[in-house]
Write a structure and sequence with these properties.
The chain is mainly alpha-helical and 364 residues long. It is 63% helix and 0% strand. It folds into two domains: 2-261, no CATH class; 281-364, Serine Threonine Protein Phosphatase 5, Tetratricopeptide repeat. Residues 136-235 form the DUF6596 domain.
């Protein structure tokens, strides 16, 4: 599958959306739970049922949801405004909850949402025309991608994940995919499913993050892996390969590996190199540095990071990890301390503090 995707992507025309750094545009939302906690199986069954077999009333409601979603993601809005408006109008969050998400006063967020509404007020309450749909679809996919990422790894707050937020992004992605036979839509849905499949193993009993290499892969949601892989396989070769298909392919390689040692890092590196040329995203460069280190050694991976803005999220954490792999525990400790000092998510800071204590011999 990945070989076919790489071959197709080499003919890609540079008209995709740059990947957005996780957490730049959205802070953790403190959202009320609509339903009681439910199992992953029940949640997945509900999502599939709602997306694929709606009742007559449900179909009309889904149509309205899609219309509002496309309106909230109008190109005249900045990504930040589009996300805030989407969370309010489609996601059901209150203005106060969104304000906490962005770490701004409620009055400030109310003004921001109000201005966003005013900017799209002159637009018709209908799906965009065929001429407008392609550009609008890119905005929709970007907002859903950012929404899912913030739910999957909150950039602030006490918990690593916000299940309600990532679930909502998946639900909306299913609606868009059911209404739009576009390979990049399928790629996005595949990406979020393949990524969310690992969520049950991402934290230990205390809520502290567990690295991908150390996760119990038996806890992964293998039904989601199968669904995401099938979506990706169906999308490949149906049109121009975009960033979401490439990211989904990388996620699929991780999910298919029986162990961390069995991961096909050369294939992942090749995909990240394509993705970097496609998007020019510094976040992709960070991920390429990791893949480069796994293929060519930590010194080569660190050389990739030399050209990256040191203020970007995760830079210090990655440098610490690669310096430790290279055997330089002093530099690793320096970067772990710096990363811990900058962390705004409590769970991530707890993990980083533990790395500092470990390398410092038990005293940070």
């Amino acid at each position: 599958m990945q070989e076919a995707l790489i071959a197709a992507a080499r003919h890609w025309s540079a008209d995709g959306i740059p990947a957005q750094p996780r957490g730049w545009l959205l802070q953790t939302a403190s959202r009320r739970m609509v339903d009681q906690w439910r199992s992953d199986t029940a949640r997945r069954d509900r999502e599939v049922r709602v997306a694929s077999e709606p009742s007559a009333g449900g179909a009309a409601q889904d149509d309205d949801t899609l219309t509002v979603l496309f309106l909230c993601c109008h190109p005249v809005l900045s990504p930040t405004s589009a996300i805030a408006l989407t969370l309010r109008a489609v996601g059901g969050l209150t203005t106060a909850e969104i304000a906490r998400a962005f770490l701004v006063p409620e009055a400030t967020m109310a003004q921001r949402i109000s201005r966003a509404k005013q900017r799209v007020a002159g637009e018709r309450f209908s799906m965009p025309s065929p001429d407008e749909r392609a550009d609008r679809l890119r905005s929709v996919l970007r907002v859903l991608y950012l929404m899912f990422n913030e739910g999957y790894t909150g950039s602030a707050g006490d918990d690593l994940t916000r299940v309600d937020l990532s679930d909502e992004a998946i639900r909306l992605a299913r609606l868009v995919q059911a209404a739009d036979d576009d390979p990049e839509v399928a790629g996005l849905l595949a990406l979020v499913l393949l990524t969310d499949a690992r969520r049950p193993a991402r934290t230990d009993a205390s809520g502290t993050p567990v690295t991908l290499a150390d996760q119990d892969r038996g806890l992964w949601d293998h039904a989601r892996v199968a669904e995401g892989t099938a979506l990706l396989d169906g999308a490949i070769g149906r049109g121009a390969v975009g960033e979401y298909q490439l990211q989904a392919a990388i996620a699929a390689i991780h999910d298919r590996a029986r162990s961390a040692d069995a991961t096909d890092w050369p294939q992942i590196l090749a995909l990240y190199e394509l993705l970097e040329r496609m998007t020019g995203s510094p976040v992709v460069t960070l991920n390429r540095a990791v893949a480069t280190a796994m293929v060519h050694g930590p010194a080569v991976g660190l050389a990739v990071l030399d050209g990256v803005d040191g203020t970007l999220p995760r830079v210090d954490q990655l440098k610490a990890h690669l310096h430790e792999l290279a055997g330089d525990h002093e530099l690793a400790l320096t970067h772990y301390r710096r990363a811990a000092g900058r962390a705004t998510n409590v769970a991530e800071r707890r993990y980083l503090d533990a790395q500092v204590a470990r390398l410092a011999g038990g005293s940070a």
